[in-house]
Design goal:
279 residues, mainly beta, Immunoglobulin-like, 2 domains, seven-stranded mixed sheet, 20 strands, 13% helix, rod-shaped
């Protein structure tokens, strides 16, 4: 009788253990929630660059600005989070670029912007796009210079009437109170940073006339003089100033300055005679 009780106890314990084990295993097999996959779309980017200042005289190799592989591209979402930042050469290896649904901004740039420089300029472009589920969107970004180009050509006759001559450019927002100085023997053009709407560029021509062609202040000859003017300049455009003397003997000093402004897009260059102020 005692033996049967022992067996019964063992069987009851085994049953309880088996039940507990089964309950534990059943609990572990309960289904788990699976996170939903985010919907995405894809971006294809067409980046092009135009640096065409019309005049062939160059201070830098403008063709380097047409190589879009050199451009830095930045893509940000509507919250300002960066989704890509790197060269276009790198981005091309990842296109089409997979992105979450939403609105995005894209910008591209190359070079450095200076108020006035003979060494380089900056080109920029931007756009926006929207990614939709399971769709591929094509975005086009056109990059253009933030500068305009100015050139000066002195007529050889300037050396006949003047000992020295030069031009100062001023008046743009980027230059502020500074000036871009074009010397007598300079040949390399200036790239002037210009606002998007275009700006008025002022020029001041400085001359030191030879004694025979000097002006008169009473009975005294005055050799230093200035002549001033202005023109409109747009981004990615060029203006060329050709400066020549116009001399007619008079009692007050007959030397005048003739300025021809050419942008090649007009049928006829603008030719004006600028009076000089003897100082």
């Amino acid at each position: 009788m005692k033996t049967n009780k022992i067996y019964l106890g063992i069987l009851m314990c085994s049953a309880i253990g088996l039940t507990t084990s089964c309950l534990s295993e059943t609990k572990d097999l309960e289904p788990r929630s699976v996170p939903e996959e985010k919907e995405t779309g894809r971006l294809v980017l067409d980046l092009n660059a135009d640096a065409n200042f019309t005049f062939e005289t160059r201070a830098v190799d403008e063709n380097t600005y047409k190589n879009t592989d050199n451009y830095t591209v930045n893509i940000t979402d509507s919250k300002g989070n960066s989704k890509f930042s790197g060269t276009f050469a790198t981005l091309k290896t990842r296109l089409p670029l997979e992105l979450d649904l939403g609105s995005y901004s894209i910008s591209a740039e190359y070079g450095t912007e200076y108020p006035a420089s003979r060494d380089g300029f900056k080109a920029v472009g931007s756009s926006t796009f929207t990614i939709q589920a399971a769709k591929t969107v094509e975005c086009n970004v056109a990059c253009t210079p933030t500068a305009g180009k100015v050139l000066v050509e002195f007529d050889p006759l300037m050396a006949t009437y003047c000992d020295t001559y030069s031009v100062d450019f001023s008046g743009t927002t980027a230059l502020g109170n500074n000036k871009a100085h074009w010397g007598k023997d300079d040949t390399a053009p200036f790239y002037l940073a210009i606002s998007e709407a275009g700006e008025t560029v002022n020029y001041t021509i400085h001359i030191t006339a030879k004694t025979d062609y000097a002006g008169l202040d009473g009975e005294n000859k005055v050799t230093n003089a200035t002549a001033t003017g202005s023109f409109q300049l747009q981004r990615n455009k060029a203006k060329k100033l050709t400066i020549r003397p116009n001399y007619t003997p008079t009692t007050d000093g007959g030397l005048k300055i003739e300025v021809t402004i050419d942008e090649t897009t007009n049928d006829k260059p603008i030719r004006i005679e600028v009076p000089v102020t003897w100082i």
